[in-house]
Amino acid sequence: MKTKQNTLWVHADPRDSILTVADKLVAHTTHLMRTARTEEDLRVRFETGMAPLLAALGVVRDPRYEKTIYRSGRADAVHGQVIFEYEAPRAFRSKSAIDHAFEQLVRYISGEASERKDALYIFDPKLVGVGLDGEQIFFVHYCGAKGAPKVELSAKDFVRLGPYPFDQSAAKTLLTYIRVLSRRLLTADELARVFGPEGNIAPVVVAAFADAFANWATAPRVHAFFDEWRRLFGIVYGDGFAAHEAEQAQRLCRLYGLPPTTDLQVLLFMVHTYFALLMKLIAAELVSIAETSFMSSFSHDLAHSNNEVLRAKLEEIESGGVYAKRGITNFLEGDFFRWYLDALSPQLRDKLRDLARALGEFEPATPIIAPDAQRDLLKKLYQYLVPQEVRHDLGEYYTPDWLAEFTINEAGYSGDTRKRFLDPACGSGTFLALAIERARKYGAEKCEPARETAKRILANIWGFDLNPLAVIAARTNYLFALGDLLQAVEC
After folding, report:
1. Alpha-carbon distance 408 to 419, whole Å?
2. Who has greater pLDDT, 113 or 243?
3. Does residue 254 carry a pLDDT above 90?
4. Inter-CA distances, 102 with 105, 184, 205, 249, 351, Å
5. Considering only 60-64, 314-318, 364-368, which range has the smallest mean pLDDT?
6. What residues contact residue 393 under an 8 Å CB cut-off, 6+ apart?
7. Under 8 Å CB-to-CB from 219, ≥6 apart: which residues?
8. Under a CB-based contact definition with an 8 Å cutoff, are residues 52 and 82 in contact?
9. pLDDT digits (tens, 9 = 90+) for 339-355
10. With contact defined as beta carbons under 8 Å apart, do 114 and 71 qualify?
11. Are the C-beta atoms of 167 and 173 separated by less than 8 Å?
C-alpha cells in the first residue's frame, strides 16, 4: 500500500505541455524524497513515477536496469541514449559523491560507445549521462574533437553540467534528452539525406510543384509571383541567370528526373519553393513545441489532415500565423513562394503529405539540447538541392564554418551580449549562428537570466540579405541557434 501511495498518484495526459509534465515529475520526486532512504529506493520509485510521464511524451520505453556495459561495470538504468547513475538521496551535498558519479558516467558512456561502435564525435550529445540524487541532478556530455574518432576516451573528453536543483527547468532538460535521443535527430546530415535529391521526397515533390505550375496555375497571381521572383533573382544572380542556361537546366533535370525541356528558371523556382516550404515546416515544428503538447507535431497533423484542413494549415504557415503565435511576427514578409496555394492539385496535396510525414519522424527539439551541433543546419541541404556547378554559375558561394570562425575571431567578437553584431550579406546565416552560439555561452558564463540573454541576442545580432530564399534560411537558422533560449523569448 505504501508503494501505491508513492507511485500511483502520478497521472499523465498526452495533451500536457513539457512544462506540465516536468512539474509532475518534480512533484513526484519531492513526494518520494520524504521517505526514500537508499539509492535503491530512489531508483525504483523515480523510474516508476517517470514511466507514465515518458509515455505521455510519446517515448517508446525500453529501459534496461543494472545493464552490464563493456569493461565499465553495471549502469543503474539506460534509456536509449541516456545513461543514469543514481546515488543515495541528497548524496550530492558531498563533492566526492559528485566526482564519483561523474567518473562512473564517463566510464559507462565510453563503454557503451565502444560496445555500439558509436562515433561520439559525430553528434553532441549522442550519448548523455545523468547523475541524480533526488535533490540535485547533473548531465554529462562528450566534448572532445568532433572531426576524428577517438581511440581512448578520458574524463577530459567530457563536460559535466550541474549539479542543478531538481526543479522544473532541470526536469524539463532530463525529459527532453530522453525524448530527443529516442527519435531521429534533426541534423544537417540527416536532413540532406532524407530531403535531398538523392532521397525519395525531393524529386517527387519538385515534380508535383512543376506539374501544378504547368497545369493547375489558373489564378493570375501565380504567374505574378513567378514574374516577381524572376525579376528579383535576376538582380541577385545578375548575368549568371542567363549564362550557361541550357547546361544548368540539364543538370537540374537529371537530378530531379524531369523532362530535359523544362525551363531552367521554372525548375529553379520549383526547387526554391520546395526548400522554402521545408524550412517553414521545420520552423513551425520548432516554435510549436514551446506552446503545445510535447507529443504534438505540426507536420504529423498536416500529413493526416483532410483536404480542407490541409489547405488551412498551409495558409497558416504561409501567412506567418504559426510563428506569430509565438511572438515571431516578421518570419515571413511578402513571400512569393506561397504561389502553390493557388495551384493545389490532388497530386501536389498527396506529395506535400508525404513531405510532412517524413518531417514528422524527426525530433524538433534537437536544437534545444544541442544548438552547437546545428550551426548552419540548412546550408548543406541547399547545397545538395542545387549542385555546386549550378550555384557557382549563378554566383552563389557559401562561407565554410572554419572561415567564418576565423573571421569572427579576427573581428574580436567574443559573444558579449551587449555588443552589436551585423552581417550585411548574411546568406543562410552562417555568421549569425556562430555569433549566437558565442553569445549563448557568454550569457551562461556571466550567469545572465535566459530571458535577458535572449533579449540581448535579438536586439544586437542582425543580418541582411537581398536573396529572399537566403533570408528565410537565415531566420530559420537563427531560431535553431537560439536553442532553448527560444522559449525565453517574450511573446
Report:
1. 13
2. 113
3. no
4. 5, 27, 48, 56, 48
5. 364-368
6. 240, 243, 244, 247, 248
7. 342, 343
8. no
9. 999 999 999 999 999 99
10. yes
11. no
Which grid coordinates are listed for 130?
545523468
User: How far apart, in whole angstroms, are the C-alpha atoms of residue 459 and residue 329?
Assistant: 15
Q: What does the DSSP 8-state code read for residue 487? A: G
- For residue range 294-323, what is the model confidence (pLDDT) as tens digits? 445 788 888 888 999 999 999 999 988 777
For residue 353, what are the contacts with CB-CB under 8 A and spacing of at least 6?
A: 302, 303, 304, 305, 310
**Cβ contacts of 19 within 8 Å, gap of 6 or more:** 168, 172
If one compares 100 and 125, the residue with the highest pLDDT of the two is 100
Q: Which residues pair with 69 in a beta bridge?
A: 73
How deeply is 137 buried, as exposed, middle or buried, from its count of CB atoms within 10 A (0-12, 13-18, 19+)? buried
Give CA–CA dist 162/394, Å, rounded: 49
Query: Residue 306: its pLDDT value, please?
Result: 92
Cell of 359: 518531417
**pLDDT (average), residues 162-182:** 86
Q: Please say whether the beta carbons of 269 and 337 come within 8 A.
A: no
Q: Which range is most confident: 20-24, 260-264, 326-330, 331-335?
A: 20-24
Closest CA to 83 of 155, 161, 139: 139
How distant is the alpha carbon of residue 325 from its chain centre?
Answer: 19
- What does 47-79 look like in DSSP terms, one character per residue? HHHHHHHHHHTT-----EEEEEETTTEEEEEEE
The answer on pLDDT for 461 being more than 90 is yes
CA angle 213/241/224 to nearest 5° reads 35
